[in-house]
Amino acid sequence: MKPSDQQSHVDGKQIAALLESGASGVLATVLASDQLRAGAKLLIREDSESVGDLGDRDLNRAVAREAVNFHGIRDEAKSSQVADFAPELQHLSDSLILFERIEAEPRLVIAGAGHVGASLARLAAHVGYRVTLIDDRAEFVARDLFSGSTEQSIELVAAASWIDAMRDAIGSGRGVSVAIVTRGHKQDEDCLRAAATSNPDYIGMIGSKRRTNIVLDKLREEGIADEQLSRVHAPIGLDIGAVSPEEVALAILAEIVNERHGGSGGSLSAWRRG
User: Is residue 48 a contact partner of residue 66, using CB atoms and an 8 Å limit?
Assistant: First the structure.
């Protein structure tokens, strides 16, 4: 950890700057302690840089280490006594620390605004994703097709070039999931070519096993690394027996959420049957 010498407290500006940068972090807050000031905060970025002070330098270091573990379990928040993660700090053992995940709202870039793509955009927007929906047919991304209250937030892009539009939408790839649900091989190839080299957190492509393998093999022949292509979920989505476009959209979003939070994708009732 590299504590900041310039900022000893955490306020909204530091959190806003973290979110605007596309990075994530953990906010640690003293909930209860006889030795520390309740409400004291330490913001630990994913690069281990920190801002703030909990009131004890050794505790700051221990909390920064625990923040790495917390970041890995994908919980939104948890509270722990210092004795649970830093038993060596006996003078603070009963102090209670709240760990909270700080990250920008997840983004979803959808290539293809047909029945599945449009359904996926609406569903993802409803559950809190910042959605960009792209199609090369302007009439498929007309605003009047997405005029509901939750649909107003969907960014609609009429693409002159699939590759350029995809790269612009994906940006750095941090916090971004990509769903490729276009109408044909050529569009799939262009979109996957852009996505695979932009390093988003998740890439999925719709289609049969044969169709998706054709596209992947074509890009492999072009020289795109196996390491990049092996990350592609194709065919996209979890197997829930989906039939309608809305059900297919649900299967796709379920896999995206599963990957984002590190779930197993299995039935929650399996533990009882086992």
Answer: no
In the block, tokens 């937030």 appear at: 153
Of 50, 72, 103, the one marking the end of a domain is 103
Per-position DSSP letters for 19-67, written without gaps between them: HHTT-EEEEEEEEE-SSS-TT-EEEEETTSEEEE--S-HHHHHHHHHHH
In this structure, the answer to whether residues 113 and 97 fall within a common structural domain is no
* Residues 70 and 159 reside in one and the same domain: no
Q: Cα-Cα-Cα-Cα dihedral of 82, 54, 62, 102, to 10°?
A: 100
Q: Do 142 and 237 share a structural domain?
A: yes
The reported pLDDT for the residue numbered 260 is 86
Q: Is 217 contained in some domain?
A: yes
Nearest CA-CA partner of 24 in 76, 100, 101? 101
> Which regions of the chain are under pLDDT 70?
1-8, 22, 74, 271-274
91 and 50 fall within a common domain: yes
